[in-house]
């Protein structure tokens, strides 16, 4: 009995494991204007990781490139604009610095989105390689027209 175009039973029993040489990467463009921060972050993390592909393999970077524009125009729900704090610690006594989201969006508009996405991808070597495929821009222009990214709508 042959199933789904397999030549023999041994071929049918093999498990597919993605190989970095065989992965075809695409470029996606996401407009973040008036989109919720967390919704964009989860969708982008999924694409960067490659979980939207049938060939997903957890220990191989099989994700695609993502370009995000209009990061300065993201929105959040509830009172997060005033209440959400980004903390960093210098290591010295009284070295804790806290920055509210509203101030973060004024000073570094791409950093809030970058921070949210980075928290959703794996830590370690694989996560660092995956994160390099993310390009975020505060305005509506980007430098990746040559790659002709496909416009993707994140709900």
Blueprint (SSEs and pairs):
Layout: H1 9-12, E1 27-31, H2 37-49, E2 65-69, H3 80-83, E3 85-89, E4 96-100, H4 101-107, H5 111-118, H6 125-131, E5 134-136, E6 150-151
Parallel strand pairs: 1-2, 1-6, 2-5
Antiparallel strand pairs: 3-4
Helix pairs in contact: 2-5
Give a verbal description of the structure.
The chain is an alpha/beta fold. It contains six helices and six strands, in the order αβαβαββαααββ. The chain has helices spanning 9-12, 37-49, 80-83, 101-107, 111-118, 125-131; strands at 27-31, 65-69, 85-89, 96-100, 134-136, 150-151. The chain has a four-stranded parallel β-sheet, with helices on one face. The protein has a two-stranded antiparallel ribbon with strand order 3-4.
Question: The CATH topology of the domain at 21-76 and 110-151 is what?
Answer: Ribosomal Protein L13p, Chain: A
| Number of β-strand runs | 6
Class computed from helices, strands and strand pairing: alpha/beta
> Residue ranges: pLDDT <50 for 5 or more in a row?
none
What CATH architecture label of the domain at 21-76 and 110-151 applies? Alpha-Beta Complex
Shape: globular
- Helix-strand topology string: HEHEHEEHHHEE
Name the CATH superfamily assignment of the domain at 21-76 and 110-151. Answer: Ribosomal protein L13
Largest sheet: 4 strands, parallel
Q: Strand sequence of the main sheet, in spatial order?
A: 5-2-1-6
- Helix tally equals 6
Summarize model confidence as the mean pLDDT.
92
Rg over C-alpha atoms, rounded to the nearest angstrom:
19 Å
CATH class of the domain at 21-76 and 110-151: Alpha Beta
